[in-house]
Automatic annotation (TrEMBL), chains A, B:
It catalyses: (R)-pantoate + beta-alanine + ATP = (R)-pantothenate + AMP + diphosphate + H(+). InterPro entries: Pantoate_ligase, Pantoate_ligase_C, Rossmann-like_a/b/a_fold. The reaction proceeds by a bi uni uni bi ping pong mechanism. This is Pantothenate synthetase.
């Protein structure tokens, strides 16, 4: 497995690896890899000739007071995991390599970024758009792989890719969960044992929402209320947001909308804080197929 | 010469043309080509294996009330000129091909776009950034060629290219002028005979600025005042802006700055309206070399 720490080295090594028209699968990450990242790497390994992983904690997508300084890192373990998934090349730039000076350019994706994490974390998706644009130009992947835990990020990146005509296919991976349901996240390491136990409420509330959503008379507002009540049952949980939106447009759904009459895919997305640790989770509800309503994506 | 009107056709034809690792030189334009565009095509022909021209009147870089609807077009003449310059492929998309739906993504370049045409035409450079980003991704050029008449555009595109790590070398071409000095522009066609005669004041005022700039005691403010007075000597000229800025940073220069003490390259840029027609011109002053101060770029 090749490790590149500079852009010049990345370009040289990639040029050799992809020669003869080989396809390149790219998994961009902020490191501290878990099974969710591994599932994306394995998916890329199945489909692409060359698998590239990037590890870069992108300062531009963190706001003031967020956890940039304490974001967990473990390069040695990340490299071992990447290698075990059949990764060919890891791009591990330092900050000065990605941002030799403060960038003047920003990539804004309007509409999609005004809700959910975009509302809670102003500027977050500008930073994501910028770094993903940079990485797409540096790696020129055939396919790029993103996890659905960050469902809004997936919608944003798909839109940016289409609007800017990046010649990249966006492939998504399902949310990977702990046995008790907690969605894997690099940030789970921040949780105290008590918080970790309570954090299962995120996935449990979404599972309950799946069961409730087709009840006659269940509305958008009713489902949100039920999810909020379930989460508030956990003593230390502080809700950032619980929203029900169309997906991937992230357009709002009227509160009084009966869900069994909705013929579009929607998402229930939530962000919950335990102490200083902010966790997100979501579930997609496919109402386009009639009979398959509320089935797991 | 190949003519492509769809993205799919462009990609297919380009794939064949560039096979074997040929370099691609790209000249993006809004058509109604003149000798300035031709000089860029010939420059590309000298340096690159494959020369690609795009002609697309990009609606996203026009503001409300600007001349989008009456922007001059002459496809037949453009194609003949492109062919005579040795162009290999012309990309001529319709609007629906470039913008199948209203784009949610915008590319903003801050700092550089807050003065000159960026101030006079709000949103103009967001539209330029978006379409150039799209075209770079569609054409993947080795080099892209831009004329220095749009000096601010060159600064903006160089910054965007570096910030987003586009793997494209930006090559600039000098301003091409009519025998009397008027900078070539597709918009010159709008001028009435009287306006056309008066429009020579733009280039003449810049030539006079070149002569005056090293006079002992000449300040930034003094030079701007002299240029404004020269332009106002033309009866129908209405000044939009006359500015003296560092180039390419476009940072301001204090009004009382003695120019013969300035050890940086600066630009005098102007925009002047004749009736509804807005013309721009500029001159670069290279003060980095000591003796070569105020020499033509």
């Amino acid at each position: 497995m090749i490790i590149c720490r500079t852009i010049a080295d990345l370009k040289e090594k990639l040029h050799t690896l992809r020669s003869g028209g080989k396809s390149v699968g790219f998994v961009p990450t902020m490191g501290y890899l878990h099974e969710g990242h591994a599932s994306l790497l394995r998916k890329a390994r199945e489909r692409d000739d060359v698998v590239v992983l990037s590890i870069f904690v992108n300062p531009m997508q963190f706001g003031p007071g967020e956890d940039l300084d304490r974001y967990p890192r473990n390069e040695e373990r990340d490299l071992a995991l990447a290698e075990s998934c059949g990764c060919d090349l890891v791009f591990l730039p330092v900050q000065e390599e990605m941002y030799p000076s403060r960038p003047l350019t920003s990539v804004k994706i309007s509409g999609l970024t005004e809700r959910l994490c975009g509302a809670s974390r102003p500027g977050h998706f500008d930073g994501v758009g910028l770094v993903v644009g940079k990485l797409f130009n540096l790696v020129s992947p055939t396919r790029a792989y993103f996890g659905m835990k960050d469902a809004q990020q997936v919608a944003v990146i798909k839109t940016m890719t289409a609007d800017l005509n990046f010649d990249v296919e966006i492939v998504t991976g399902e949310i990977v969960r702990e046995p008790d349901g907690l969605a894997l996240s690099s940030r789970n390491v921040y949780l105290s044992p008590v918080q970790r136990e309570q954090a299962v409420v995120l996935s449990r509330s979404l599972r309950e929402a799946k069961e409730m959503c087709m009840k006659p008379g269940m509305t958008s507002g009713g489902l949100i209320k039920a999810v909020r009540e379930a989460i508030n049952g956990a003593q230390d949980a502080v809700i950032d947001y619980v929203e029900l939106l169309l997906y991937p447009s992230l357009e709002p759904v009227p509160e009084d909308q009966p869900l069994n009459e909705l013929r579009e895919t929607f998402i229930v997305a939530l962000a919950v804080k335990f102490g200083t640790t902010r966790l997100i989770d979501n579930a997609l509800f496919d109402h386009t197929g009639g009979e398959s309503a509320c089935s797991e994506q």
